[in-house]
Amino acid sequence: MCADSLAGSIGRPRLYRQESLPYAPDWSDVQRMLADAETDKPRDIRDRAILLLLAVYGMRSGEVVALRLEQIDWAGRTLRLFRLKRRQPQIYPLVSSVAEALARYIDMVRPSSSCPEVFLCMQAPRRPLKAGSIYDVANRRFVALGIEAAHRGGHALRHACASRLLAEGLSMKEIGDHLGHRSAATTSIYAKVNLAALREVGAFDLGALQ
Fold this sequence. Notes:
By secondary structure, this protein is mainly alpha-helical.
């Protein structure tokens, strides 16, 4: 990146739609964030459940706050997600780490409420969280752990999820399906990440975060 003193003396490069790369924190940093939230503090219990949904399923902030209790099938061990850009719900395996985090939050922290949404404000009024709250959850960990990132919200963990899938050899279609993309063009941006660096993340497994 050019120094500030040179910024005015050169022309800015022309940027095209596919030329900006998604920022993804290292998977080791994602694991650090999850470990940092693994305490008995009510806020950490809630945050860990949210962070796992972002990292494992690549959920958007709006999808996290819209998640309802009825979408969790405890007996069938599945999670039914309504992706913002898809008309039909998608069914995912409810991996044990996510199931345990959700159950712990619901049983120990979630306020008693008639609201169907999973994640509620911890203080009155007991309303569902807003999308901006998800940014705060992620950003708080980035700052506390000193993780360098161009973006520090929940979307950074969605990118980390996609990058990890790509590093393990999944196709663009498979990654797009996992993230709930409607168009292959949306997913194609992940093809430009540095695969050499990403190979360090190790074998991908939805249960690897346990």
